[in-house]
Design brief:
The complex is a heterodimer of chains A (about 270) and B (about 450).
Chain A: H1 3-33, H2 37-40, H3 54-62, H4 65-96, H5 102-111, H6 121-131, H7 137-161, H8 165-173, H9 178-189, H10 191-207, H11 210-215, H12 223-228, H13 238-258, H14 260-267
Chain B: H1 2-24, E1 27-32, H2 36-52, E2 55-60, H3 63-75, E3 83-87, H4 90-96, H5 117-122, E4 124-125, E5 128-129, E6 132-144, H6 145-151, H7 161-171, H8 192-202, H9 219-235, H10 245-253, E7 259-263, H11 267-270, E8 282-286, E9 299-305, H12 313-323, H13 326-336, H14 347-351, H15 353-358, H16 362-371, H17 395-410, H18 416-433
Parallel strand pairs in B: 1-2, 1-3
Antiparallel strand pairs in B: 3-9, 4-5, 6-7, 6-8, 6-9
Helix pairs in contact in B: 8-9, 17-18
Classes of the chains: A mainly alpha (about 270), B alpha+beta (about 450).
Chain lengths: ~270, ~450
Amino acid sequence: MHPKTREKLILTLVGWLAAGLIFFPIFWMILTSFKPEVEAIATPPRLFFTPTLENYVTVRERADYIHFAMNSIIISVGATLLATLIAVPAAYAMAFFPGKRTKDLLLWMLSTKMMPAVGVLIPIYLLFRDTGAIDTRWGLIVVYTLMNLPIVVWMLYTFFKEVPKDILEAGRMDGAKPKQEVWMLLLPLSLPGIASTALLSIILCWNEAFWSLNLTTSQAAPLTTFIASFSAPEGLFWAKLSAASTIAIAPILVFGWMSQRQLVRGLTFGAVK
Amino acid sequence: MQLRQLSLVSAAVWIAGTGLALAQGQTLTIATVNNADMIIMQRLSPKWEQATGNKLNWVVLEENVLRQRATTDIATKGGQFDIITIGSYEAPIWGKQNWLVPLNDLGADYDYADIIPSVMNGLSYDGKLYAVPFYAESSFTFYRKDLFDQAGIKMPDKPTYDQIAEYAAKLTDKSKEQYGFCQRGKPGWGENMAFVGPMVNAFGGRWFNEKWEPQLTTEPWKNAINYYVKNMREYGPPGATANGHNENRALFATGHCAMWVDATSAAGYIYNPKESQVADKTAFTAAPVEVTSNGSGWFWAWALGIPASSKKVDAAKSFVKWATSKEYITLVGGESGWVAAPPGTRKSTYDNPEYQKAAPFAKVVYDAIVNADLTKPTKDPVPYIGIQYVAIPEFQGIGTAVGQQIAAALAGQTTVEQALETAQRSTERTMKQAGYPK
């Protein structure tokens, strides 16, 4: 075999192996969702079995999936829009008009992500209680916006830095005001980056469980709460939990798959000038 | 003047009418765990809604999430929940903090005298009942009668741990994946420690002496844990540190275990041929004893409590009264079959011939629950109540830390002596920080 072909083959194999490893838990979850409960925890685990839809039927009977899914969509998209709206001007200022402390400011913003969420649970809960925000969609949108803002600002900052300053300057020479500069030049030029940032933010919001479990009860509860309700201290629940998880991740999986081209383009945006 | 009086009277009538209408059409938020009995309650609750005109908003959460969520809400007076499902561990602790509404006034028709006294005690603090029992359980020994008959062994009514080890040796056949001693190994105060706690009690041990000093390095603890580790390794299933209640239940139901000491509430499941392959081969006896029978079977109850922060206490009381009444148990018996009736709470359930017929294990379960005396859990006197737990807020952390040490000893990462030494030190530290002795 030609050394180049062999190298290609090995690389392909490694690629498939990595993809397989990453996908395996999801595959196993989907598989478990079609097993009867006793099969779901059988040792050794079985790959072949008589599939059943019983778990999906139970999950559908016991909870209003659409209600939870709608909350997930509204909260994730709402928080992402709000975060982008705040982050675009912030990142624009930091990328094109950096001050002495811009880098420190960016690092400080990111460092807030290092604090465990439970550390601020009680103050946030009290604030929510006093403002009537517990179990409301807008309350969760505010928390998710704040939670993702550092990452969104960082990513947009990185993408904006890739846009040549000269283009913006040329716009300015032609009389563009800052608003027009951002709206007509910067945003179209960095659209793939913005799209991938927004996608990442939506995924992070979709999967967030700590705040949704603590700040919602029923009205604003998203899909993470829906999944949690199928775990039980006594009795078998793995198959039902897997069925609930499968239908909870299905929309975001389809969404991610449909937008993968955009996502990859965004993540490699500006890699080669 | 008359006109004024008339308008005052009309206003009063209007307010009273509105108040009544509100009381009838309230929406209550109920937080609960996802157990089979709770699912039945959720399914039957429209009957109560129709009868009262109120509505229930169900929030189903995982046990630990529910505990944390409810604690946060009650401690901050968030008022998000009107009814919560709590265990017998929380009821007296939360009652002492005045977090729960006392429930001694549900009316004569509620028949408090029918509730099993040990269950009443487990949910009370200072003579006040803080949560009403939905179902209760103790622990007992599940064993495979067919395997015992084949080996020519007769299970005694009150086996000792020594006898259990002897039988386990005879009934273990690893080539057939058949294990004599299937017990909980997954670390956690509600997991391995639920089994280990009563076992230590039976060996004559206790968590604390009367001065609240931890006793984890005393002889009874060493004997009990050495016994546990030895028998689990020799006669237990592989990977036992990952096995909790659910895993062992599945192992037993699929015919891999000869003996299993666990919750009486699992008997209905093991006895159901739709869910268990050993339904016709299983028999039950009391939890094993050793130097004492005090505290040898655990006590646990799932109960319904009303947070003091609820603004709909009257409607909430009406629901908890309905869901824990004799009439409700009869309703479940009629709708879902008597074997599914919530066990362990009322004497009348065990007097019912239909229940006795559907649940042949009823007598053993009843005896186990009646004898589970939370106030005398050990051979020597103790300053606490609780059998497999100690009813103080610090116990969740202590129990889990000690459970992790014992799981480490079971996995062979440390010796039993070393594990107990470490457990003793961490418990001493926690108790000191909490300000004991109080």
